[in-house]
Write a structure and sequence with these properties.
It is built from 43 helices and no strands. By secondary structure, the protein is an all-alpha fold. The longest helix has about 40 residues.
Length: about 850
């Protein structure tokens, strides 16, 4: 559609038109002051020129003069509503404020005037993919490809748009159509062609065409520059396609799939990659292709043998494979660990377990006990029959640790006579303490770890373990002191410094914890708290916020807000970090397509889609919402409190006193600020070698007073809805949704949250809130329809009985103490 003709007063003379072009140029080159000066020159003669007003507003926005920027852009729009430039600038203004919905509306309005404007279409596509409007993104990229079909980037972006919209087959067709236009260039072995070929292969794999994907991978080998990635993908596709290849007698040469995975394991550090071991086990055991897809998705150190029942022949086959690989790479720990995960209980398992423990005791590895916990606490779908698991395995390790500790103490060798190191006795005691800790025998564990500390008092890990034992025993302050003792043994260890900070915060020593955390911040970065915020140290902000939140207990609404403000600021700072994570992907929408990092780009988009489901985001939102609910409760209690008659003279005197008190506090704050500024100025003057601190905008709400002053129930509802949207699988999400709904007197919403809680594996929050809703039901005033629905659903949740009987049955069915205590709380 052709642009509408402009009225005469919106047409600039030649000289001013050139100046206007310079404004655009200055904006694009970030010469904002020059752009502002050029805009003023045009507006001096043509004060009602809409596009110049809009561009001036855009420049002002870049100079952080937002109010003026919006005023100028709106004025420009009123002057020239038919200008696509004005609407485009309006969209850019909204985009800078992250108001993407309004920005999209502005871009679409601009496209109604100039439908073929490539720049506006490109900007619109960026916002659509940012908001995951995949259909809109697909249509916009199609229009761009139609307009600029010779541009490679538009072809690739259109293929990605089809992929994101779930049209993998169409994406493959687009890539193939593009390949037809560049036949000779497409055969060159370079990074771009390599990534495009591997991306096409990914599309085939996601479409379930594993045979075709394998054939394509073999065909494009000459183009791919990522040889390691090609080999890894080919090994996976051999499993998914069910192709085993020719069979040989050698265990590591058994078939093509086995050879592919063995070659990957033989790579440097390949033995430590458990994804390769999952592939090797699937290939050796000839697992069905469909089952392979499931098993290869396992995480961390889990392997198929954890969930597969093995025959004696299969166990022997795996033993032969790992013994051969271990002889080639004797230092690789995986070859010593993996046989333990599938070996049947008996003398062979005991011998392997003892050798594994001795290997790491001699090395002095504190993670030995944590690694063995996989055997002590198997997951629900793990095979346990015929294998040594649970507390039986833990006690076996405990006996081994005791035996070796005694032998090391008496004759300085292991029980079997193997040579050792001077600190091995201490590490045997450490393993013994870890086993006792896992078994819940904390006093015995404490006595053993004291022996380890006496043996090697300079080791950091031993007092750290004692601090953990003290924490589990409920002695939080003693634990913090012991962790500080461990920290002082190695002042250059960031991990132990952070651990000490966390323990101090759990003990309520906020000031000491902040000083400890500041030891590892950079001096040139400025204020330590601000530096940690800039580094997005969410764990620190959550721990400090939790420590401050524990102080918010009782008091007047004003007192509670004063205490809650700093904690709210920290919790909502974590929420902002996740918003920044999502926002940070914006620049990659064009960069990744231009640089052809398509597989990584799609992977990042999938990560960003679920990033707010992270436990840090959930914890920050839940704790902030709980504080807001506490403030709302205090406000409600204050309103419900009967107002006593106050003597007018007394009220006037009290008001005068409060005014004087506030004025005094204000003068003191101003004096302190002035003194700090002068001290900083003097320090800077006396220390010429000190680097200048980075310039930052002043914090308008350093104590969180503005956050605490917000309407608490509204904010709690906002946070609850955010969790329901982004973290629907979390128990805390639905527990908070129930609590907020009950405060808002929304019983059906509370019931919905309760239904969702009933489907969670952890039932503690469910039973407590079910009892709460049941007890609150008689006092509710409801319509007949709502009452009938609520009563029917509660009866169903209670299995037709009363609440007390349900809770007693729940406690009887659940052997764990935490479940029984939840039922007791509900009663």
């Amino acid at each position: 559609m052709a642009a509408l003709a402009k009225p005469d007063k919106q047409r600039l003379p030649k000289k001013e038109a050139e100046t206007f072009k310079n404004i655009v140029k200055f904006y694009e080159t970030k010469q904002y002051k020059k752009g502002l000066k050029a805009a003023d020159l045009v507006l001096k003669k043509h004060p009602e020129h809409g596009e110049t007003l809009a561009m001036k507003g855009l420049v002002l926005n870049c100079l952080d003069r937002k109010t003026e920027a919006y005023d100028h852009v709106k004025k420009g729009l009123r002057a020239d509503m038919r200008s696509h430039v004005c609407w485009h600038v309006y969209g850019l203004l909204y985009r800078s404020d992250r108001n993407y919905e309004q920005a999209i509306k502005s871009y679409k309005q601009a496209l109604k005037i100039d439908s073929d404007n490539v720049q506006i279409l490109r900007d619109l596509s960026l916002l659509q993919v940012q908001l995951r409007d995949t259909r809109g993104f697909l249509e916009t990229r199609r229009r761009l490809l139609t307009l600029k079909s010779t541009n490679k980037m538009h072809w690739i972006a259109y293929a990605v748009a089809n992929h994101l919209d779930g049209k993998g087959k169409e994406a493959i067709k687009v890539i193939d159509a593009y390949g037809e236009t560049v036949k000779e260039e497409g055969r060159e072995r370079n990074y771009e062609n390599s990534e495009l070929a591997l991306y096409r292969n990914l599309l085939l794999e996601e479409s379930g065409k594993y045979d075709e994907a394998l054939d394509h991978l073999d065909a494009c080998k000459s183009v791919v520059v990522d040889g390691f990635g090609w080999r890894k993908k080919r090994a996976e596709l051999l499993l998914y396609a069910g192709r085993r290849g020719t069979t040989s007698t050698g265990v590591l040469d058994r078939n093509e799939a086995v050879r592919a995975w063995v070659s990957l394991i033989r790579q440097p550090v390949g033995a430590d990659n458990y994804h390769f071991h999952r592939g090797l086990q699937c290939a050796l055991l000839e697992v069905d292709a469909t089952k392979c897809l499931e098993l290869m998705r396992e995480k961390a150190t889990r392997t198929p043998t954890d969930v597969l029942v093995l025959s004696d022949t299969q166990v022997t086959l795996l033993d032969d494979a790992y013994s051969t690989l271990a002889s080639e790479q004797p230092r690789a720990d995986a070859f010593a660990w993996l046989p333990l995960t599938y070996c049947p209980a008996g003398p062979s398992f005991d011998a392997q377990l003892d050798a594994f423990c001795r290997r790491f005791i001699k090395r002095g590895a504190p993670a030995l006990g944590s690694a063995l916990e996989r055997l002590w606490a198997p997951q629900p779908n793990d095979v346990v029959e015929g294998r040594c698991r649970g507390s039986q395995c833990c006690r076996k390790v405990l006996d081994m640790a005791k035996t070796h500790a005694a032998a090391l103490s008496s004759k300085s060798t292991f029980a079997n006579g193997d040579a050792t190191t001077p600190t091995s006795e201490a590490w045997a005691l450490y393993l013994q303490a870890h086993c006792l800790e896992w078994l819940g025998q904390l006093d015995e564990a404490m006595a053993v770890i004291d022996r380890a500390i006496a043996h090697t008092p300079t080791a950091v890990d031993f007092p750290e373990k004692k601090a953990r034992l003290l924490k589990k025993a409920g002695r939080i302050k003693d634990a913090a002191e012991m962790m500080d003792t461990a920290r002082k043994l190695d002042l250059a260890d960031r991990y132990i410094n952070n651990k000490c900070t966390k323990y101090m915060l759990r003990a309520g020593n906020v000031d000491d914890a902040r000083a400890t955390a500041a030891l590892f911040t950079r001096e040139e970065a400025g204020e330590p708290e601000q530096h940690l915020r800039d580094m997005q140290a969410s764990w620190y902000e959550l721990e400090v916020g939790s420590a401050l939140a524990r102080r918010v207990t009782t008091g007047t609404p004003a007192e509670l807000r004063e205490l809650a403000g700093p904690a709210l600021k920290l919790f909502l700072s974590v929420e902002k970090h996740f918003s920044d994570f999502v926002e940070d992907q914006f620049d990659f929408h064009t960069y990744c397509v231009r640089k052809m990092t398509l597989r990584a780009y799609v992977s990042v988009l999938k990560l960003e889609d679920n990033i707010r489901g992270h436990k840090a985001f959930v914890k920050a939102c839940v704790q902030a919402a709980e504080l807001y609910l506490l403030l709302h409760k205090a406000d409600s209690a204050e309103v419900a409190k009967p107002q006593e008659a106050v003597d007018p003279k007394l009220a006037k005197a009290l008001a005068k006193r409060e005014k004087a008190k506030a004025a005094k506090a204000k003068r003191k704050a101003e004096a302190d600020a002035k003194a700090q500024a002068e001290a900083a100025k003097e320090a800077a003057k006396n220390d010429d070698s000190k680097k200048k601190l980075p310039k930052r905008d002043a914090d308008e709400d350093p104590k969180g007073e503005k956050l605490a002053a917000l309407e608490p129930l509204k904010e709690a509802t906002r946070l609850s809805k955010a969790l329901e949207k982004y973290a629907a699988s979390s128990v805390e999400t639905h527990a908070l949704a129930f609590d907020v709904s009950m405060v808002r007197a929304k019983p059906l919403l509370a019931l919905r949250a309760l239904r969702r809680l009933s489907k969670q594996s952890d039932q503690r929050a469910f039973v407590v809130r079910l009892a709460r809703l049941t007890q609150a039901r008689p006092a509710m005033t409801l319509t007949a329809t709502v009452a009938s629905v609520l009563d029917a659903e509660l009866k169903d949740l209670l299995s037709g009985g009363d609440c007390v009987a349900f809770l007693r049955g729940f406690a009887a069915r659940r052997p764990l103490l935490r479940d029984r205590s939840a039922a007791a709380r509900a009663l």
